[in-house]
Design a protein that fits this description.
The complex is a heterodimer of chains A (216) and B (301). Chain A is of the alpha/beta class and 216 residues long. Chain A contains seven helices and ten strands. Chain B has two domains: 2-58 and 162-300, no CATH class; 63-157, Alpha-Beta Plaits (2-Layer Sandwich), CATH 3.30.70.3040. In chain B, 75% of the residues lie in helices and 8% in strands. The relative contact order of chain B is 0.15. Bound molecules: adenosine-5'-triphosphate and magnesium ion.
Chain lengths: 216, 301
């Protein structure tokens, strides 16, 4: 499903955030990417989502080598992913529902079907009664759940989340991770980056531990 | 597949409408600027169309008068008659000097003057209505008539026709230049509004791309925005021209009446409104196209 070999990312300026990393992720895996702050977790997530390009090595996602992917193919690759970003990237000029709808409009879902599916996704994360609210009026945990609803609404094969529990209390964080676990249970490949390794024992995931850009 | 394409366009259109509607003051100002920019060339074009129709009608009754020498007599008249018959320049008729005098008498205010004349001062004349009314043909006829025997004077009103024709051509050129300048202005205005639009939707564009939006999906609302704004500007221009013509209609008719003519300004018709809307939409689309390419490149850093 996702396989990296000697994957290296050097940022302009010369800093190597990911160095010679190799791993294999099977379809249906649940994977935690851990490591200290600055270890390269976000960089690795961005490489997999084709937001950043590998400097060297290969990264194969869904049978496509991202190092050689045409720009015009990137949108279609991303539609296989549900992305949850460290800084959520919600749109505050529209309702909770409209935030989720955007994802379905991009792929050209019929409006009625899109609304039905967006509501179902909001229901799954417990936000259905807030569908008309502006995301600015949601708590941190609720915003994170909205980000997840948006990520899953298009039924991705891979859920890719960068520090989804970043600034949440233990209880909200646990609720969020339970949502991811429930998607893992129905066969979705789940990748979660976190600098807090204490979650690992609850879910028995595969672990990719990064240390200064290297896999340990 | 066909359907998803359609839905994506529907999303783009409604998003463009929302963006137009969402900033009513900006939209109104842009529409005014675009409307006024299109008004000038549109008004010029319609005015020239009006004048062209008018001149075609006027030159349709083009006449050449051939005045004979006073002492030409019946023999002279017969000579011209036979020459006209063989030259066959169009319809023609003979106006004997008695008839000319009678007509002069009938025209207002002249009766007493004519009565006081000791004898008929008018010559015999022929009035020719040439089959072809172009200035070149009329001029050629005038020259050949002048060379005929017993002809004192040939009068031809083609000078004003030619001048009018040249003036129309000049006007057409001016309107074309005006249209080019203001069309470029419209593109520039759209370019700027779209640039601001792209900047103010940077967050949405970024998110859309991250979750798999194609370039086309991101750009489409801006194209529709530019085209819609241009089309509305075109309709506004048509309204402004129509209003202006309505205001000018009465004074112009009055002026024409003073010269004994009839001239009614024809304002923009449904087809003209449509044409203006389409031109506005096309130019708006072009401005958006140029702007989106540049603005998105800047946004990507
Ligand atoms: N765009 C960039 N340009 C240059 N250097 C960068 C860029 N993005 C990240 N880096 C550097 O790469 C290293 C890894 O960053 P990254 O964001 O991947 O770490 P992280 O593991 O996600 O950290 P955190 O837990 O704090 O989010 C850091 O030292 C960072 O300064
Ligand atoms: Mg990070």
């Amino acid at each position: 499903m996702i396989s990296a070999s000697h994957l290296t990312k050097r940022y302009p300026g010369g800093y190597e955030a990911v160095k010679e990393v190799s791993f294999d992720i099977e379809a249906g895996d649940m994977v935690f990417i851990t490591g200290h702050s600055g270890a390269g977790k976000t960089t690795l997530v961005k490489l997999i989502a084709a937001i950043e390009r590998p400097t060297s090595g290969s990264l194969i996602v869904n049978g496509q080598n991202l190092a050689a992917l045409r720009r015009s193919a990137i949108p279609y690759l991303r539609r296989h992913f549900g992305l949850v970003f460290q800084d959520q990237k919600l749109l505050f000029d529209r309702s909770v529902l409209a935030n989720v709808l955007l994802h379905l409009q991009i792929v050209g879902q019929p409006p009625k079907e899109a609304v039905r599916r967006a509501r179902a996704a909001l229901d799954k994360v417990g936000l259905l009664e807030r569908e008309r609210a502006n995301p600015i009026a949601l708590s941190g945990g609720e915003q994170q759940r909205l980000a997840i609803a948006r990520a899953v609404v298009n039924r991705p094969t891979v859920l890719l989340a960068d520090e989804p529990t970043g600034n949440l209390d233990t209880e909200s964080a646990s609720a969020i991770l339970d949502i991811f676990a429930s998607f893992h249970q129905v066969g979705v490949t789940v990748l979660i980056s976190t600098h807090d390794p204490h979650w690992i024992r609850n879910y028995q995931p595969k672990v990719l531990q990064l240390d200064h850009g290297r896999l340990v | 597949m066909m359907h998803s394409w359609l839905f994506q366009h529907r999303v783009a259109v409604s998003s463009a409408v929302r963006r137009l509607w969402g900033a009513p003051l900006n939209t109104l100002l842009s529409l005014l600027v675009i409307g006024i920019a299109l008004t000038l060339p549109a008004a010029g074009y319609l005015l020239i169309e009006n004048l062209r129709v008018f001149s075609a009608r006027a030159s349709g009754t083009q006449q050449i008068s051939i005045f004979l020498e006073r002492e030409a007599g019946r023999k002279g008249v017969a000579e011209i008659e036979s020459r006209l018959q063989s030259a066959n320049p169009g319809r023609w008729r003979f106006v004997p000097r008695e008839e000319a005098l009678k007509r002069l008498q009938e025209s207002t205010g002249m009766a007493e003057v004519v009565a006081s004349l000791p004898r008929n001062p008018l010559p015999d004349a022929f009035v020719v209505e040439p089959a072809e009314g172009s200035p070149e043909v009329l001029e050629a006829l005038r020259q050949s008539f002048t060379a005929w025997p017993q002809v004192a004077h040939v009068q031809l009103d083609s000078a004003w026709v030619r001048r009018f024709d040249a003036l129309l051509r000049l006007g057409k050129l001016a309107v074309t230049l005006l249209a080019l300048v203001f069309g470029a202005g419209l593109v520039a205005i759209t370019f700027n509004t779209i640039r601001l639009q792209v900047v103010s939707h940077a967050a949405e564009i970024e998110v859309a791309r991250l979750i798999g939006a194609t370039n086309a999906f991101v750009r489409r609302p801006f194209y529709y925005f530019g085209a819609l704004q241009g089309a509305l500007g075109g309709v506004l221009a048509a309204l402004l021209v129509g209003l202006g013509f309505k205001l000018l209609d009465a004074p112009i008719a009055e002026l024409a009446a003073l010269y004994g003519g009839k001239f009614a300004l024809a304002g923009p018709g449904a087809l003209d409104v449509l044409l203006l809307a389409v031109i506005g939409a096309g130019l708006g689309w072009l401005g958006a196209q140029l702007s989106v390419s540049l603005s998105l490149r800047q946004l990507n850093g």
